[in-house]
Amino acid sequence: DNLSDTLKKLKITAVDRTDDSLEGCLDCLLQALAQNNTETSEKIQGSGILHLFSSLLIPQSSCTAKVANIIAELAKNEFMRIPCVDAGLISPLVQLLNSKDQEVLLQTGRALGNICYDSHSLQAQLINMGVIPTLVKLLGIHCQNAALTEMCLVAFGNLAELESSKEQFASTNIAEELVKLFKKQIEHDKREMIFEVLAPLAENDAIKLQLVEAGLVECLLEIVQQKVDSDKEEDIAELKTASDLMVLLLLGDESMQKLFEGGKGNVFQRVLSWIPSNNHQLQLAGALAIANFARNDGNCIHMVDNGIVEKLMDLLDRHVEDGNVTVQHAALSALRNLAIPVVNKAKMLSAGVTEAVLKFLKSEMPPVQFKLLGTLRMLIDAQAEAAEQLGKNVKLVERLVEWCEAKDHAGVMGESNRLLSALIRHSKSKDVIKTIVQSGGIKHLVTMATSEHVIMQNEALVALALIAALELGTAEKDLESAKLVQILHRLLADERSAPEIKYNSMVLICALMGSESLHKEVQDLAFLDVVSKLRGHENKSVAQQASLTEQRLAVES
């Protein structure tokens, strides 16, 4: 009843604006909310006074902070959030973020945070109303006020999850403010709060660069140095957060290149020192960082010339038996990227990278299998000798054929097929073809010719043409049972097939003529009709190859 009286009184004083009696009413409400928030909130909603609050949220009044505090308390209840929006409270609250009064700011921030809690659409509305630049400015002005700082950080953490916020954040000096704040924090919990804002913001490339320029990396390296030997749980967690964030900053092209500094940079050198450390988290971050630095040829060449390959091979060696899967995956990712520039391939081959990588053939972990395959494929590109050596390795080829059937792991399956094809294309070796035929690999190359990816179809057709040219007798039975001729007929008849697919299919048809049984299949399927239609193809090479193939078919028949 006491509450009902207060609510009645509030309706009158809110209109008359007698601050003293208004203040008394507000104090009663706050007291009631402190005793039983849910019940009091229900009564306030029932009384219909919520809409009066918007007229009480004025900068000049001494009661404003209390009104905002009441709204913040009400909006702790989910059922009160939409009524607060409907009562038009968001706009006057946003206006109050320009206040100079720290208590008003704090309660206003709480109120907005609670009303918009967990609602992406309301948070997006706040972003559109321009709260981000306002809050960043507040953080700069009131960085001595712990409660206000925390309120800003919580708000940033919620808003940064929305994609639409990133551009607005990027146009403020948030990076500078957060780094400045971070440097002052000694307590783990406070630093963790800042980390929770930094991580989503650092997904944006422009902000990555701003954070690097504001000196965040130096802070992160310092944390790593302080925490690396600690076995306290919170230190281990902070080491992980700092090193993960470091790797995230390197995902931006500009921020990565800035930190590489031609391979002479302090940051690059420090990250290098993580790889031989005994801390798994640092080994992981170090290898991932190298994989990120290895995103352009210049960096890759510099790193290979300066001994990075040996460091990564040593790291892999430490993780062969019961190793850490994430470290294996990261080190293989780095080696794969480093193997992309042509000049690095021979150097890495003679350093023994293939041998180091093949130790992981027995791995049952798809992510490791995937990177292992990718690394080998990069290494043998245009390296005939290495391709021949690997292609005659029965253990490897058998494992590839097994992985070509890994239906649950499309990535591993695709990479295995591509490596099988690459072994043939780059070695052009009869022995390699024989090994692949004996291991049952032909059917997979034929299936690969029907892939949805043109690049894979093409690689398969070129490999099959080499098989037909070099070892047709050996592969004949397998090509027949894999229904290669029918597949080629389908590829040529299909209008959606890319020009290079049509071209290579016709080259392959001509090569198959040397086999009596396959030749018969070609004749039975009336290829002449399909091929003669392609003589008028808009692509010159396809049209020419169609004429040649047509002549060949006519002569043979």
TrEMBL record:
It comes from the Eukaryota. One of its GO terms (cellular component) is endoplasmic reticulum. SMART domains: ARM. PROSITE patterns: ARM_REPEAT (PS50176). One of its GO terms (molecular function) is guanyl-nucleotide exchange factor activity. SUPFAM superfamilies: ARM repeat. ARM repeats lie at residues 88-130, 307-339. The gene is RAP1GDS1. Keywords: Cytoplasm, Endoplasmic reticulum, Mitochondrion. It is found in: Cytoplasm, Cytosol; Endoplasmic reticulum; Mitochondrion. InterPro entries: ARM-like (IPR011989), ARM-type_fold (IPR016024), Armadillo (IPR000225), RAP1GDS1 (IPR040144). This is Rap1 GTPase-GDP dissociation stimulator 1. It comes from Sus scrofa (Pig). Its main location: cytoplasm.
